[in-house]
Amino acid sequence: MVITTAPKGTKDLIPQDSYKWHYVEKLFAETCREFNFKETRVPTFEYTELFERGVGDTTDVVEKQMYTFNDKANRSITLRPEGTASVVRSFLQNNLYAEAMPCKMYYNIPCFRYEQTQHGRLREFHQFGTEVFGAAQPTADAEVISLALTFLDRAGLKDLTVHINSIGCKTCRKKYNDALRDYFRPKFNELCGTCQSRFERNPLRILDCKSPICQELGKDAPKLLDYICDECRSHFEKFMAALDGMGIEYTIDQGIVRGLDYYSKTVFEIISGGMTVCGGGRYDGLVEELGGDPTPAVGFGLGIERLLLRLDETGFVIPEENPVDLYIVPLGDNANVYAMKLAYTLRQNGISVETDHVGRGLRAQMKYANKLKVRYTLVLGDNEIEAGKANLKHMDSGEQTETELDKLTEFFTK
Question: Within the chain, which residues score under 70 in pLDDT?
Fold first, then answer.
């Protein structure tokens, strides 16, 4: 173990790249505001049972990927593997169901799953998400997709395709599960051990298995859309009509079942360059499963690392943040003290300022200021302090302007 190496599946966000995260985070929050979604924040860890009951004990997430441990009081705790179960718990605990519906929330959270690291997939990853509670109409399904598309397009992804499916409700799922068991029964001995254990409990999860063998065995399995009930079919048709009304193109993809057990009716994925950058759907039974009254709900999760990776692959250049307004170049001890006083005053007025803290000479400071891409520099020595004036240099044009030191704030706030 090397203590100066981050654990496998984790990644540092270094200062040179933080502006990229600021860009998408700000854009996501602004887009959610336009759709009347309010931010929520939930704990990083929860009691393990929340995810076992909410996500589903036959899913890969619960069976293989959760970071679970006992705390000092011997309670089983799990680092959050996804956002929806935690938001539902918060919805119930904080009595948000008593407010006017729908309740529309968004979040920006880290999640944790122990899985094989690969292109765009980490063990600690970050996720944007939205949840809508109390909206049974299929227009809500279409709205969350339109929000995701609006954000992704604004962020810089243009090659987006929407894939949709319906996985029905508990009523029609039972009939479909029977059909899956009939299909997989002759192939049972060829399934992996995990899928064999799922055969009786939840055969739908076999279709989500990552094993190439199980994927091949399941390629001709019955299609769920052939088994959905009249109510689910009507919901799906109205959902598609809402997408059509907004001019959103989509593909019906019967291979989408999503990897979490709480989904019902609508499921969808948004894909860019073969990479799924967003996925979600409806989960009308989850609030009741976790102890609340029956409450319709729909939402999505969107991986931030995957989004940034895909933007980079497409060649999209995220604009850098505004440069530092002023670099003060102090020459001598008196100037160091005066530079700190000047910088403090300017910063209190919303002006970004940097100055020297490592004892560089004039030339080295100017070189450093140029590296920072500052807008202006100001050389400050004893003569300038005594005169109360100094030359402001515009770093792009090289133009210099004599400015009174006590009027610098006025200059930058014009």
Answer: 1, 259
Q: What angle do CA 137, 134, 247 make, to 5 degrees?
A: 35
Task: Give the per-residue pLDDT at 13.
Answer: 95
Q: What local confidence, expressed as pLDDT, does residue 139 receive?
A: 98
Task: Please report the pLDDT score of residue 202 as a whole number.
Answer: 82
Instruction: Calculate the alpha carbon distances from 141 to 51, 276, 303, 403 in Å.
Output: 23, 18, 19, 58
3-class DSSP assignment, residue 327: strand
Specify the pLDDT at position 259: 62
DSSP assignment of 236-280, as one string? HHHHHHHHHHHT---EE-TT---SSTT-EEEEEEEEETTEEEEEE
In angstroms, the CA 395 to CA 373 distance is 8
List strands edge to edge, sheet with 124-133: 38-39, 103-112, 124-133, 297-303, 275-282, 264-272, 160-166, 251-252
- pLDDT (tens digit per residue) in 350-373: 999 999 999 999 999 999 999 999
- Closest by CA to 113, choosing from 67, 69, 70, is 67
Give the C-alpha separation, 389 to 406, whole Å: 8
Tally of CB atoms within 10 A around 36? 9
pLDDT at 120: 76
Q: What is the DSSP code (8-state) at residue 116?
A: -
d(CA 263, CA 217): 23
Residue type, 41: R
Interior angle at CA 229, CA 185 and CA 249, nearest 5 = 100
Question: In this structure, are residues 266 and 225 in contact, taking their beta carbons and an 8 Å threshold?
Answer: no
The CA-atom distances, in angstroms, between 153 and each of 62, 148, 160, 251, 352 are 33, 8, 8, 18, 31
Q: How many other CB atoms are found less than 10 A from the CB of residue 266?
A: 26
Reported pTM: 0.89
Please give the pLDDT value at position 317.
95
